[in-house]
Amino acid sequence: MKLTLWLNDKKVQDEIAPDMMLLDYVRSKGCYSVKCGCETTNCGLCTVWVDGKPMLSCCIPAARMEGRRVTTLEGLQKEAEEFGKFLAEQGGEQCGFCSPGFIMNVLAMVRELKNPTLDEIKEYLSGNLCRCTGYMSQLRAIENFIAYKKEKGEL
Amino acid sequence: MAYVNSAVKKKDYKALVTGKPVFVDDLAPKDCLIVKLLRSPHAHAKILSIRKDIAMKVPGIEAIFTYEDVPQKRYTQAGQTYPEPSPYDRLILDPLLRFVGDPVAIVAGQTEEAVDRALKMIKVEYEVLEPILDFRKSKDNPILIHPEDNWVANCPVGADNKRNLCAHDDMGVGDVEAVLADCDIVVEETYHTKANQQAMMETFRTYCYLDVYSRLNVVGSTQIAFHVRRILSNALGIPKSKIRVIKPRIGGGFGAKQTAVCEVYPAFVTWMTGKPSKLIFSRYETQIASSPRHEMEVTVRVGANKDGFIRAIDLYTLSNTGAYGEHGPTTVGLSGHKSIPLYGKTEAFRFHYDVVYSNVMSAGAYRGYGATQGIFALESAVDELAHKLKIDPVKIREMNMVCEGQIMPAYYNEHLRSCALDRCMARAKEMMNWDEKYPCRDMGNGKVRGVGVAMSMQGSGISNVDVGSVTLKVNDDGFYTMSIGAADMGTGCDTTLAQIAADCLGCDIDDIAVFGVDTDSSPYDSGSYASSTAYVTGGATIKACESLKKRILKEASRFLEVSDEELEFDGKEVYVANAPEKYISMRDLANKSMCFSNNALEVTESNSQPVSPPPFMVGMAEVEIDMETGAIELIDYVGVVDCGTPLNPALVKVQTEGGLGQGIGMALYEDVIYNEKGVNLTNSFMQYKIPTRLDVGTIRVELESSYEPTGPFGAKSIGEVVINTPSPAIANAVYNATKVRIRELPITAEKIAKGMGRF
Fold this sequence. Notes:
Largest sheet of chain A: 5 strands, mixed
Strand content of chain B: 15-25%
CATH superfamily of the largest domain in chain A: [2Fe-2S]-binding domain
Helix content of chain A: 25-40%
Structural class of chain A: alpha+beta
Order of helices and strands of chain A: EEHEEEHHHH
Helix content of chain B: 25-40%
Number of helices of chain B: 19
Largest sheet of chain B: 7 strands, mixed
CATH architecture of the largest domain in chain B: 2-Layer Sandwich
Number of helices of chain A: 5
Number of domains of chain B: 4
CATH topology of the largest domain in chain A: DNA polymerase, domain 1
Oligomer: heterodimer
CATH class of the largest domain in chain A: Mainly Alpha
Radius of gyration of chain A: 16 Å
Strand order of the largest sheet of chain B: 3-5-1-12-9-10-11
Shape of chain A: globular
CATH architecture of the largest domain in chain A: Orthogonal Bundle
Number of domains of chain A: 2
CATH class of the largest domain in chain B: Alpha Beta
Radius of gyration of chain B: 27 Å
Number of strands of chain B: 29
Strand order of the largest sheet of chain A: 2-1-5-3-4
Number of strands of chain A: 5
């Protein structure tokens, strides 16, 4: 079947199988930041934005993306690097396999929540599993990042 | 020291945080064959017949292999130094199936759809056999899990496949029975730890291709590139010279990838077909057919006098290695050797064990490697002893803990050169505010908060076995390339080893390009396991820098026309010691060395140590128990670690927090569960829950560093010691809150409520 969508702000047209998942589709288009960690929507590694909202691409048929705007970390490189520096200062990226999905959600969170509390941050990101870090370093990175963005007047 | 002991960002961080294609499946050739495995539906069965002719007709199917197609020599998938203590008990495909999920056939095709279709069309007739699912019934059971005559144990580990025994030993110092008989009090209890999944975010995966020389190239997510080369050679029956193994970035390992769980299957496909292939394990497969922690039942007898001095420890471990013996004979050793030495004043100890086969998936290496299991048992037993003697559990540990300078009989008679366990305990006590909180506080709302403590140790590499090597080369303009065989699996060793090298060579860390791992070009390294990298490969880094500096001086003496003994090197220039105005810059030296030179500015050095200095840790947990339902919430966790000099404090902290997170999962809910037929019920992240950021409470970590004289810049290891305290500390906290002693993990609300007599 035919699919037309916007992938990282570029219009793309493709012939796809009706049962193809969005995760497999974006990877087939070279968006390798999107990872599969569990195939049961439990880990958050496959997080992409659909029309600006974070969603789990492992269980969304690509066919449903007709006319939608899909964003992956490939489309947010500058922001990823900006937050990533704070993460790396804490050593909080570790193996890095969950980092793209996690960062997609962090970037969505700072757009969506104004002045999130610690509990709101944990709640917002609870669907992003990480097996390396025990999460504390990521929390420190987010707090530092938010403080920095506020100082710059960007939040 | 500019870099060592500072929180340098990981060299690869930018690629990781921007999601660059650096992992196995991002790099695999797009046209490679898709490989999948047909797996046994039975826990114990014989294949009577297998038909693949219909499945072969599915369009796009390239090859289907069954037990009739594979070499008949047994091998092990355990990544260990040769000769491996793990028995050679596997075939790539075996007509005797030993667990639900054991491979029956390998299918390779052009598309995933074709392979999935073909998998359903392979006709297998099974003779279903009675399985052994309770490992307590395995030893000397008439049902044999490995009846085959070509089963081989390469090392004298007390194994006997005709008794379902993978290993057995009995050792000790002094007369334990006599000392126990003379003690005022003896606590004897049995503790049960379960299988847990490492649950690294990147599942097992490998791709393979033949290169221009027709050699088998294997790109895998592995901690043990060099061992994988040997394992593949053994499994496929081809010379090692035909195999090259490469490790790109790895999405976590935690020991899982110290076993070649998936490499042999695509390697066999590519070797047989000549075509590139890849096998990407699903999470389902990673849950049911992988290499989890060994389930162990540990019986402890600990004897003391009435003042609380511990005089003797007798520890017996029964370990469940599952269907195959990977890491079975070695993990069990740590359950005693890395628990008993925590108590340094004993007059006698005995440590004995049996490791048995059963019809569940093979166990493997998981962070802690048996120490975790033994420490849960001993640290629980010592707590029980403290309560019987009405002594504060912190006090009894302070009285008995091992101290710097001691000889440790239960730890291969090693001399303990560095130990800050006492300071770790003192600091943890302050951080937790122990004296006020112990044993518990009634919160007045039906909930009680209790605190618990536990100690832990591990090693730093395997003494007299592990080898770490580093190759350093000077390039144009004086930058260095550093090749290592140790696998950075997210731990950051590419960075920490470069920190060491930059300090030794007096250069900027950006002037060191790190490369690893490729078995064709990296110097030999046993691999990244047993908490070895910082200590063993770190030591090799220092040696390589010293050696390279000598070469640099020799090269400079050619241009400065002074003997190299009169020269000094400060990282930027080589100069004449008593006439510093005579010098050559490193940049000029490097560039000149590439013309008319007979002195290669390249060195390789190896490091192996006769000792394995233990890092130490104290963990303290505060839990809140709902006295009606038994519901348990972790409120606070304090960890204080002595890893010697922290090479990179940020990474040490993250390792510690991460290990505690995993340990908390193990303590509270992680459990590999089988039904009565041996079917794994915890086959996804729906059923097998690992901690989310809402579950770990507050983890607070501090360092109390000793200085290890045999370690690089005083460093010991950090990777594993950090997972051992949560299970006992939380169990002890639960006891202090409720007077319910949980001796079987995980510590669930149901067990606590039952213990409180709620049902």
